[in-house]
Amino acid sequence: xxxxxxxxxxxxxxxxxxxxxxxxxxxxxxxxxxxxxxxxxxxxxxxxxxxxxxxxxxxxxxxxxxxxxxxxxxxxxxxxxxxxxxxxxxxxxxxxxxxxxxxxxxxxxxxxxxxxxxxxxxxxxxxxxxxxxxxxxxxxxxxxxxxxxxxxxxxxxxxxxxxxxxxxxxxxxxxxxxxxxxxxxxxxxxxxxxxxxxxxxxxxxxxxxxxxxxxxxxxxxxxxxxxxxxxxxxxxxxxxxxxxxxxxxxxxxxxxxxxxxxxxxxxxxxxxxxxxxxxxxxxxxxxxxxxxxxxxxxxxxxxxxxxxxxxxxxxxxxxxxx
Length: 322
Description:
Elements: E1 2-8, E2 12-18, E3 24-31, H1 42-60, E4 67-74, E5 77-79, E6 84-88, E7 93-96, H2 98-106, E8 110-114, H3 115-126, E9 135-140, E10 144-150, E11 153-155, H4 186-189, H5 191-204, H6 210-213, H7 225-231, H8 235-259, E12 263-267, H9 275-288, E13 299-302, H10 309-315, H11 317-320
Parallel strand pairs: 1-4, 4-8, 9-12, 12-13
Antiparallel strand pairs: 1-2, 2-3, 5-6, 6-7, 9-10, 10-11
Helix pairs in contact: 1-2, 3-10, 5-8, 7-8, 8-9
């Protein structure tokens, strides 16, 4: 049996054919929208997704008749019960029957879910959270995404808009967040926030080795700059990394105190720092978490599936519906 997973993003669509061992045996990708351009018509995007699905199946060397289930993860508020994409700013869609539109084109039932939830489900099915009954997955990327697994199922709240962990406030009246609030976790712990924090530190310390790493141009700063400087023994870089990790720890500790999951897995580009991130993060969390004296504690690990988490999770969404 083969399942098809679709990871729909604001800029591209990635599709994969997933076998019974949750290995991806065929892929395809198409653009969604172009940078700095208005979103394309939704139906045109659906046409391209359908074409990518058929190409992925062809690349897998199987026939479409061998595809048993199709799942789609996409950004925004997704009603998995009705198959309606209620709102997605990244895609320019509102109250769009995304499941029905794909079912028309693919002649199969399509299961839909928020993309962060689908990625979290992928990690719980085949990644770092495999075997965990309760898990939370946090993605440190352009924003801070979150996916919650309770009793092996995706938790998305009564209106399918839950799990927005990046928009819990960690600093009252703090930095402005794109959601409209101030002090959100995302405004401090995203890769975007890290880049800003690095740039500010560099402007305040012209002797930092971080200037050498970016050839003297602040525009070259990325999520690795401060970490690379930290490993070089640079004081300013070390200060950026330590403060940034403290922000991550604040949100992770909140998540543990609320859910007490078996595992929290950290994904996104920043997670590639591995132990450089996880070891100090654990020190902060262990000092502050509620119930620190309990025998069973939440394990904090890096995500394993990378960019494939969304595909694998989407391909298995039929299990979440059972």
